[in-house]
Design brief:
The complex is a heterodimer of chains A (about 325) and B (about 600).
Chain A (H helix, E strand, L loop, with lengths): L1 H27 L16 H10 L6 H13 L5 E2 L4 E2 H35 L5 H15 L2 H15 L17 H39 L2 H8 L4 H12 L1 H13 L6 H7 L4 H11 L2 H29 L1 H5 L1
Antiparallel strand pairs in A: 1-2
Helix pairs in contact in A: 1-13, 4-7, 4-13, 5-7, 6-7, 6-11, 7-10, 10-13, 11-12, 12-13
Chain B lengths: L1 H6 L5 H25 L13 E2 L10 E6 L14 H10 L4 E3 L6 E3 L2 E6 L5 E6 L13 H12 L12 E2 L2 E2 L1 E6 L2 E5 L19 H9 L22 E7 L3 E6 L5 E2 L11 E6 L3 H9 L5 E2 L4 H14 L1 E8 L3 E6 L10 H11 L1 H10 L2 H8 L4 E3 L23 H10 L3 E2 L5 E2 L7 E7 L3 H15 L4 E7 L1 H11 L4 E6 L10 H4 L18 H15 L3 H18 L2 E3 L1 E10 L2 E2 L18 E2 L12
Helix pairs in contact in B: 4-5, 9-11, 10-12, 15-16
The chains are: A mainly alpha (about 325), B alpha+beta (about 600).
């Protein structure tokens, strides 16, 4: 248990460190939320100064940080200057949408990557292995941006898929089946982009880990005992190749909230991405800090999950 | 049935009467509740003073879908500072006197008439009778007084408060009777009626409590229940889906009707989709997801124009906007700041001949051609040619002249090195940077064109893209810049909203902020002229004064004016009564009059 306790304490320290850095960097960034008002000749500089003061932007950094910590402990996660509401209320809805997108994308990526990686690892050098490697190399070299624009181009030319958003305008009037279909069709472009973007790394990791394990003597022995290929691969080789894959899985959980920001912005998916982008541009300080902190929280959680799984799977770590 | 009747206890006539009365009361209550909840237009009531519009008579039904670059941040008309919020709130709320976006002139809105005292200080408005908020509650002078009390309260920090301060004193608001309100200004204020435009009248019955508790800024956020948000605009709040859309439904009590006495608006719903950027908006418009598109760039306009005939939409080039793009040199007092390098260059920038040479060398036609694909006009002053009431037609429009520019530089003591580099009289090469917003591709292009034009005079110009707020920080806070490309205008056509730009003490006097007193004679003259026109009530005299201001600006070039883009918009062909205007909001200013020519044209609405 000491190992896990240590990991939890590391996670808490990491969260504190990230929050301090977030505040420092945001303080270094030039400009503030109310600066744009200065360009409006109808608003006097006194009014802008009064608004800055009202929201505490004229206070020193430690005071602002202390207030923010107090607000986090109170469950509010700070206050949005733009929305005049708590950051939590803004993040919760959008985090839910982001999680829906990224969880599905992660699920599909792993569902494809593991069988494919395992299968081709058993036939290195065969034409389908080379084809898979070529395909993953190609996908690795294509930026996410190109993938999403390509899919959007397909959507607009064929009218087969919606070109953005999460639900259609008349969503509320639809029945359960209609709502499901509507949501699924809106998910296709962003989820496919995310799956295609993450697939090459996963497939190559699974393949590499498996190829290493398949060379080990116990696998040769098992093969010599006449154990069938499917059982050999999935029952014996895959668990042995699991450690790096579990770490990778932990990382993909960590990226659940932050991995899809670009795709969300382009496809108009109402997740954390568009909110974070707009908040950064407008210097809505606490929203930025809140979004970064929630991503960090996921990272800590993902790492912890991976650590727990490693402890369960690998007795050597328990001994250490 | 018989068995049932037999099982019933015998009832007296009184009991039956009471039961029927109860049924009737229940029925009435149900009807009343359904009327309150329904967004069907309510029948006209006796004594209701509706405003009659002159639009083509339309048909009810349909949902109009438009896209916004970002979601509104609030529904609170007092705290709303961003354009998307103001766009939505503008459809939920109404003002006392409104600027007609097509004519650019004021017209009665919630008031049926207004009068001004001879000295121009007392302004009396008569409210329409029978006007109701979108929740059915009556609107009267108490709501007006309450609204202005909030706008003027210093603790609320309303950005609109500055508009309501004349001669250093806030306007006094007094209820005369239920339908009459008097506004008293400390000094005459020209075009005072224009300040009422976009000042939303708020329901006292819904907002008084939060105001009294000092929580007004937290009232009417996006999470507020639609039932608790009521206004006097053509629509009322129906649904907000975070990050996706906001749905407004017809205000059944709206105070405008067409000439056939059909209560407006015609549309069942107005839906704002949040679509992050212009390109994505164009995609959604092409895909038919949206019915109207606003402020398209010239490139996208060209792209859409090719598809317009086959896809059933129409595009409109409304001509030049009121916005003016300009190059401004840093003439701020830098003595107390550690900015010696910039301070050394200010000797050039302060020299009128230098600024004139820069202005002469810039090819404005090239800017219009390359930046706006020909859909814009060059500018030589701060007033766009589309501002027909205020533009000074006599202002000279000198054509580009590199030769003339060289002569001016020579006269100012500049010379050229053998390699063509321009040198000042101290032998320093003329080299400076222009900062521009990196997120504004058009201004970045302008900076590059200017860089190229000025290189022909031997000036070494660097273009520095900066993130928008970083740019604002340099211009307004640190003064750490040499020259910048910026844009102003685009709001009202009247000169008064621009006071803070041209008064030497103004907070938007960009080239020299916070002047304790006018730094130059011509700035002192502009101060006097602007102050005079502000209190002058007669248009012709105001125009004469403002023409002089424009001439002084043109002669002294505190800003080198560049160009203004045309307003480019589009709509599906079946959207009727679509009359876009150059004043904002360009497309939805008459949304109550819009209707679909064909049933079920968009969304799920069906014509009745």
């Amino acid at each position: 248990m000491k190992y896990l306790e240590r990991r939890v304490i590391h996670g808490i320290l990491l969260l504190i460190g990230v929050s301090v850095l977030c505040f420092l960097f945001s303080d270094l960034a030039p400009g503030s939320f109310f600066d744009e008002m200065k360009l409006n000749p109808q608003i006097s500089s006194e009014t802008v100064a009064a608004l800055r003061s009202q929201y505490g932007l004229d206070k020193p950094l430690p005071v602002r940080y202390a207030r923010w910590v107090e607000s986090v402990l109170g469950g509010e996660w700070g206050y949005s200057f733009a929305y005049n509401s708590s950051v939590r209320s803004l993040l919760v809805v959008r985090a839910r949408n982001t999680l829906l997108l990224t969880t599905l994308a992660t699920l599909f990526s792993w569902l494809v990557a593991v069988p494919l990686g395992v299968w081709i690892s058993n036939h290195p050098g065969k034409w389908y292995d080379r084809l898979s490697m070529g395909g993953t190399s190609l996908l690795l070299s294509v930026p996410e941006l190109v993938l999403v624009f390509g899919l959007l181009y397909f959507a607009i030319r064929t009218h087969a898929l919606p070109v953005g958003g999460m639900t259609s305008v008349g969503f509320d009037q639809l029945g359960l089946w209609g709502k499901t279909i509507d949501l699924v069709t809106h998910l296709i472009v962003p989820v496919t982009t995310l799956v295609l973007a993450s697939l090459p790394v996963l497939v190559r990791h699974v393949r590499a880990s498996m190829v290493e394990v398949l060379k080990l003597p116990f696998i040769q022995a098992a093969r010599g005992h006449g154990i069938g290929p499917a059982r050999l691969l999935f029952r014996y080789a895959l668990p042995a190749a699991g450690n790096p894959l579990i770490s990778l899985f932990g990382l993909s959980v960590a990226g659940l909230l932050s991995g899809s920001l670009l795709v969300e912005v382009i496809t108009g998916w109402p997740g954390i991405g568009p909110l974070l982008l707009e908040a950064s541009m407008s210097r809505d300080l606490y929203v930025v800090v809140g979004a970064v902190m929630s991503s960090t929280l996921f990272m800590v959680f993902g790492s912890l999950l991976a650590d727990v799984m490693l402890v369960v799977v690998d007795p050597r770590i328990r001994v250490e | 049935m018989n068995g049932y009747n037999l099982a019933q206890p015998e009832r007296s006539a009184h009991g039956i009467y009471m039961q029927r009365l109860g049924c009737l009361a229940t029925l009435f209550l149900a009807c009343a509740l359904s009327c309150l909840a329904s967004s069907d237009p309510q029948p006209l009531q006796r004594g209701e003073e509706l405003q009659t519009t002159d639009n083509e008579v339309g048909r009810y039904g349909g949902n109009l879908v438009v896209a916004q670059r970002s979601e509104p941040k609030t529904l609170n008309p007092v705290t709303a500072a961003d354009a998307p919020s103001r766009e939505v709130i503008g459809r939920l709320m109404a003002d006392l006197i409104h600027i007609n976006r097509a004519s650019q002139q004021t017209e009665p809105a919630l008031v049926k008439s207004w009068s001004m005292s001879k000295d121009g200080r007392v302004f009396t408005v008569k409210l329409r009778h029978g006007v109701r908020f979108s929740d059915g509650q009556p609107f009267d002078a108490d709501d007006v007084v309450f609204s202005f009390q909030v706008y003027l309260d210093e603790k609320v920090h309303s950005p609109q408060r500055d508009l309501l301060v004349a001669g250093g004193k806030p306007v006094e608001v007094q209820k005369i009777d239920q339908y009459t309100v008097r506004f008293t200004l400390a000094q005459p204020y020209a075009a005072a009626e224009r300040i009422f435009d976009s000042l939303a009248m708020m329901p006292r019955h819904l907002l008084e409590k939060s105001y009294a508790e000092g929580k007004f800024a937290q009232a009417w956020t996006l999470n507020t229940s639609p039932a608790e948000v009521a206004g006097l605009g053509p629509f009322r709040m129906k649904e907000y889906v975070a990050g996706q859309r906001i749905v407004l439904e017809r205000n059944p009590y709206y105070w405008k009707a067409d000439r056939n006495k059909n209560r407006l608006p015609y549309l069942d719903e107005l839906i704002f989709l949040f679509v992050g950027n212009e390109d994505a908006q164009v995609l959604r418009f092409q895909a038919g997801d949206t019915d109207v598109i606003s402020r398209v760039s010239a490139e996208n306009y060209a792209l859409l124009s090719k598809e317009a005939p086959s896809r059933g939409f129409e595009l409109f080039d409304l001509g030049p906007s009121l916005e003016y793009n300009f190059l401004v040199f840093n003439l701020n007092d830098l003595k107390s700041r550690n900015l010696d390098k910039i301070a050394n260059k200010q000797a050039w920038f302060e020299d009128l001949k230098f600024r004139q040479a820069v202005s002469s060398a810039i090819d404005r036609d090239d800017i219009v051609k390359l930046v706006y694909a020909g859909r814009g006009v060059p500018l030589w002053g701060n007033v766009s040619p589309s501002n027909k009431f205020w533009v000074d037609q006599a202002l000279p429009h000198p054509s580009r002249s590199l030769e003339g520019a060289r002569k001016q530089l020579k006269a100012a003591g500049f010379s050229w090195r053998g390699d063509g580099q321009l040198m000042d009289h101290q032998g320093q090469p003329v080299e400076f940077s222009i900062i521009a917003s990196s997120s504004n591709a058009q201004r970045m292009k302008m900076a590059t064109i200017i860089q190229d034009d000025l290189s022909k005079l031997g000036m070494n110009v660097h273009v520095v893209p900066l993130e928008f707020r970083a740019l604002l920080d340099r211009v307004f806070q640190t003064y750490d810049y040499e020259a910048s490309i910026m844009a102003l205008g685009g709001g009202d056509a009247d000169p008064n909203p621009e006071l803070n730009v041209w008064l030497s003490s103004g907070g938007t006097h960009l080239w020299h902020l916070g002047e304790p007193k006018p730094a130059t004679d011509w700035e002192a003259q502009i101060d006097q002229l602007m102050q005079k026109q502000m209190v002058e009530l007669k248009y012709s005299r105001r125009k004469h004064l403002y023409d002089q201001v424009q001439e002084l600006i043109g002669q002294n070039l505190p800003c080198v004016f560049l160009a203004t883009p045309n307003i480019l918009v589009g709509a599906k062909k079946n959207v009727a009564n679509f009359r876009p205007a150059i004043l904002e909001p360009n497309t939805l200013w008459n949304v109550e009059q819009l209707y679909f020519r064909q049933a079920g044209a968009s969304g799920s609405g069906a014509a009745r």
